[in-house]
Write a structure and sequence with these properties.
2 domains; Serine Threonine Protein Phosphatase 5, Tetratricopeptide repeat; globular; mainly alpha; 10 helices
Length: 224
């Protein structure tokens, strides 16, 4: 690609990210149009761009977000597969790209659900392997994802351990998201689950009692 294309890549990446955000807020055909415009913008980023690995990750993430809007359909399967392909390309450039490793696992889980395969299927195994790789890159980064897999497979003790690890590293959704997560349905009636949620509530109460000094927020760039 040309030098001009390289220097324009940063603005094209930002445009693609903004289109993705707009698509997520839209519905129906308008969302499909915006997602496609985002994909076209990602495709226009130079392969020699210094952040091309990130570009591929964001590109795959856009596919992943679109697939999540398609429920369990053949269209969703194709979009999940596109997402996985982009994450694989990202890892070919940056093998330890944490976002691509985790999100490829998430895409594999989405694909497994769309195909309605058994919980011992290869798709779940591959997702679990990716989450374990993510844990070697950054502890806690995929602990919650692992907890979801263990819950689906009725592995109660392993699920609790993963949830505790996610909590201890501060890399976990809020209480309402955990309670409403359908992937955890199998373990929500376990006695320890209630205690686990209570530990969150107590932790949040203690945090509310701490007086913090107001600071001027730092605005992050769109690509951060």
């Amino acid at each position: 690609m040309s030098i001009q294309s390289y220097f324009m890549s940063g603005s094209r990446l930002k445009k693609a990210q903004q289109l993705t955000l707009d698509a997520r807020q839209a519905e129906g055909e308008q969302a499909n149009i915006l997602f496609q415009q985002a994909y076209d913008s990602y495709a226009s980023v130079s392969e020699s761009f210094s952040r091309y690995a990130d570009t591929l990750h964001y590109w795959g993430l856009a596919y992943l977000q679109q697939a999540d809007t398609k429920s369990f359909s053949s269209e969703a399967i194709k979009i999940y597969e596109e997402a996985i392909n982009k994450f694989l390309l990202c890892k070919a450039i940056a093998p330890n790209h944490l976002g691509a490793v985790v999100d490829e696992g998430v895409a594999l889980l989405g694909l497994a659900k769309c195909k309605q395969v058994s919980f011992d299927d290869e798709l779940y195994s591959k997702a679990k392997e990716l989450f374990e790789v993510a844990e070697t890159i950054q502890l806690g980064s995929a602990s919650y994802n692992l907890a979801c897999i263990y819950a689906l497979q009725h592995k109660s003790d392993a699920c609790l351990k993963a949830l505790e690890n996610a909590r201890d590293h501060g890399l976990i959704p809020d209480i309402d998201s955990i309670i409403n997560d359908v992937d955890l349905q199998n373990i929500k009636k376990m006695p320890w689950f209630t205690d686990y949620i209570k530990s969150f509530e107590e932790s949040n109460k203690e945090s509310d009692d701490v007086v913090e000094v107001d600071e001027k927020p730092v605005e992050a760039e769109l690509t951060e």
